[in-house]
Amino acid sequence: MIIVLTACLFLSGSLMFSYWIALLRKKNLRAVGDGNPGAMNLWKSAGYQFGAAGMLLDFLKGYLPLLFIIGSGYSEGMLIVPLALAPIAGHAFSPFLKGKGGKAIAVTFGVWSAITAFEAALAYAIILALLAAAIRWLYRSKQHSAHTDGLQVVFGMLLLYLYLYARAFPAAIQWVWLGNMAILVYTHRSEIRAGLKKVLVRGK
Q1: CA distances from 199 to 44, 78, 192 (A)
Q2: How far apart are CA 172 and CA 178, in angstroms?
Q3: Which of 73, 96, 157, 188 has its CB 3.0 to 4.6 Å from that of 150, i.e. a possible disulfide?
Q4: InterPro entries from the xrefs (predicted)?
Q5: From its phi and psi, is residue 100 left (phi > 0), alpha (psi between -120 and 50) or beta?
């Protein structure tokens, strides 16, 4: 049963709503910005209404199916780990796009909202907001790059672990965090490489 449920959650996560909405608007998200087939590029190419709709759908595909399974009692103990990671992995490696999915940010919020009753998702949102404020203050009038935003997402997830540890979340939730962190590092690998390159250039 756990294998079937994990497969169903992976399939749910792999539904690329933003990409499909863009196609209906005759837009190819692969040709927009960084080529990410997610809600942010939908926002840029089709407007905030469609972008917000894409974000909501990506959130819900991680939240609703997982919440239903949790309520059904199939996620006890370590079983939550594959179930929670499946929608995130589905979005990041969508078979509908030949394994090349999106950044998996909105679906990450959906998953954490389901497994912690919104607590960790809210903590992550606050962390990202504080990081964004700090970046704006550091850059002030200067325009910061998209690479900075990607690094912010990954670093924010790293900081989220401190919150989970301080709140004494069970080991299973911490394993979900580890898997989620690994996926976000992969989906933001270009931003991480660019950030490390800048650090190395400045260090010379």
Answers
A1: 29, 38, 11
A2: 10
A3: 188
A4: G3P_acylTferase_PlsY
A5: beta
Dist CA 4 CA 10 (whole Å) = 10
Residue 31 has pLDDT above 80, yes or no: no
pLDDT at 111: 98
16 within 8 A of 96, measured Cβ to Cβ: yes
CA 184/CA 178 separation, integer angstroms = 10
**For residues 183 and 77, what is the distance between their CA atoms, to the nearest angstrom?**
22
Q: Where are the beta strands (DSSP E) in 1-135?
A: none
Residue 47 confidence (pLDDT): 83
Look up the pTM and report it: 0.90
Residues 6 or more apart whose CB falls under 8 angstroms from that of 95 comprise 14
pLDDT in tens, 151-204: 899 999 999 999 999 999 999 999 999 999 999 999 999 888 887 777 566 555
Instruction: Give the residue extent of every domain in the chain.
Output: 2-203
Helices 48-71 and 2-13, packing angle to 10 deg? 170
Instruction: Encode pLDDT of 94-149 as tens digits.
Output: 999 999 899 999 999 999 999 999 999 999 999 999 998 988 887 775 555 556 77
